[in-house]
Specification:
about 150 residues, 10 strands, mainly beta, two-stranded antiparallel sheet, LexA family transcriptional regulator, hydrolase
Length: about 150
Amino acid sequence: MLRKSSIIVLGSASISNNFSLPLVDIPVRAGFPSPADDYAEAKLELTEYLVQHPNATYYIRAIGDSMVDYGIFSGDLLIVDRSLDAKAGDVVIIAIDGELTCKKLSYIKGEPFLVSGNSLYPPIPLLGKEAHVWGVVIYNIHSLQGKCS
């Protein structure tokens, strides 16, 4: 039986709900912007931008602090593509011994490991364990509201 302890499955991606927002097509500076910039607007449908393979993509919510050094925080919305082959360095959703987790796939001395983005959690060796990759995390949606004060 599959237990979902560190992530919450939210559902599959769909591009059928077209909802476009304005896209200001200029670089954003962290300093004072040039008054000479031309602020041309275009439209951006976020799902089309974030989802390359809609039939193989789903959303899942991260829970916990094991990936904070990789910029994934508890409550973040992850966009996961099942059509991609997982490779070293990818952040993956993986069922390991029946439990879903989000970790970076790595090789240490030629052996596969799952690596947390938090030094409090040691790498997890995959040899001898039942593991199934549910997909590669392609985007992380992280709210900044109320977190920068």
